[in-house]
Amino acid sequence: MSVSNRGVVYMGPGHVEVQAIPFPTLFQEEQKRTCNHAVILKVVATNICGSDQHMVRGRTTAPKGLVLGHEITGEVIIKGSDVEFVQVGDLVSVPFNIACGRCINCKEGKTGICLNVNPARAGAAYGYVDMGGWIGGQAEYVMVPYADFNCLVFPNKEKAMDKILDLTLLSDIFPTGYHGAITAGVTTGSTVYVAGAGPVGLACAQSCFLLGAAVVIVGDLNHDRLEQAKSFGCHTIDVGSTTPIEEQIKAILGVGEVDAAIDCVGFEARGCGHDKVKEVPAQVLNTCMAITRAGGAIGIPGLYVTEDPGAVDSSAKLGNLSIRLGLGWAKSHVFVTGQCPVMKYHRKLMMAILYDKVHIAKAVNVKVISLDEAPQGYKDFDSGVSKKFVLDPHGIVKEHFKKKGIIL
Prior knowledge:
17 strands
């Protein structure tokens, strides 16, 4: 099969374009690898992520011409000769982290740091700088390697399409938010602080409720995003207020500490109070240590990088941050960092969606747009709107709901 293909391409800081790109094959060009274990998908839904924005803002070493996108849901249209279980016609969710299923890390469930998919470092992802050269999925078609291992097949395609606005979030932000909550030890009755009310932070807050948290407090500078958090039962605090965060938490809980905290912001964090106008890369990490009780845990799904050309100082440009580790040590905190191993969670979260135990699309305020609207979607997302933009490259999502009398 040889048809046209288009994708969202990074053209330099603040600039993305929808361009014609090659139709995928079962060959990985950068690594010169034949991928008979791969499938080619017709992309049904693919989402704009905050991690993409780090690149588009010029805060990484991403090269011009990179095809973006690592949150992918699609229909299998071609399968390689080594693919045994995934079939043409299957509708699948694709974890953002690419994994071989064969190395020691994959066998231990650490699929975010697979050893066989990126010659430069452990771990790989679609459409991301330094992550192995795998072509991004903000496109009409994309190749997915090690398909039998990576693809989550939805058991009923029609029912899955009815829930596609939720299921499209299984490729990254729902498992990532859930992972942040799990690694912070959130459980029945927990009091939790979630730093950041972007899509990952909102997904994390919803995950905390799913896990049984008694109180979830979300902190951000953006009032629209805080209102979105309130819409599904969160308490909120304005980290730009001159009232210290500890005091704002105390006004809610009666004490100025929580059982668990999750950093859903990452390295582009801003300061608190009077410092809200400037970037303070370690702000969230230090805040989490200050407001988490002794013996508590801190989940860190927020992205931190080894190189940040746009950082505020020379140390931060190399990923060296001024973290008050002594405080965390004194309080015996547990810290968990790194990519979410999506496959550890995605099937269970799929079942929670299919059986109406969670409505994650509503929590993060999904907005469906066309592939051609992606550049505007990036601009709107960067401006701070409280929406999760889902690209519909072929119009399949909107057409499905139109037939049911729902206009997206």
